[in-house]
Specification:
The chain has four helices and four strands, in the order E-H-H-E-H-E-E-H. By secondary structure, the protein is α+β, with helices and mostly antiparallel strands. It has one domain: Bit1, CATH 3.40.1490. It starts with a strand and ends in a 6-residue tail after the last helix.
């Protein structure tokens, strides 16, 4: 089996501060990991040892939606983060999406061309 990783795609159009981005990525990672822990324990167990994570950037909500559609079509677990609106962002704004933990070969089909944040 190929390696297992998690990718979090973060919107850059929202102009979030570094701390806000870090918090949103943490939310996405935890949500995604818990989702996979329940839905695919084998992937979760393999990922847990090294917890490989990659953070990439996207320019818009439209790109998040495209990533989500591809993930659904490839049966890759995803988790979307919508902000509570307590600080920099309006309530309900989608800030990022996590993919996996899942096999690298699947995730790379979705986000392999995206640049690192």
């Amino acid at each position: 089996m190929a390696g297992i990783k998690q990718v979090i795609a973060v919107r850059t159009d929202l102009q979030m501060g570094k701390g806000k981005i870090a918090a949103q990525v943490a939310h996405a990672s935890l949500l995604g990991a818990e989702n996979v822990r329940k839905s695919n324990p084998a992937w979760f167990k393999e990922w847990w040892d090294g917890q490989e994570k990659v953070v990439v950037k996207v320019d818009s909500l439209k790109e998040i939606e495209e990533i989500k559609k591809l993930a659904i079509s490839l049966n890759v677990p995803w988790s979307e983060v919508s902000d509570a609106g307590h600080t920099q962002i309006e309530p309900g704004t989608t800030t990022c999406i996590s993919l996996g933990p899942a096999p690298e070969s699947l995730i790379d089909k979705i986000t392999g061309k995206h640049k690192l944040l």
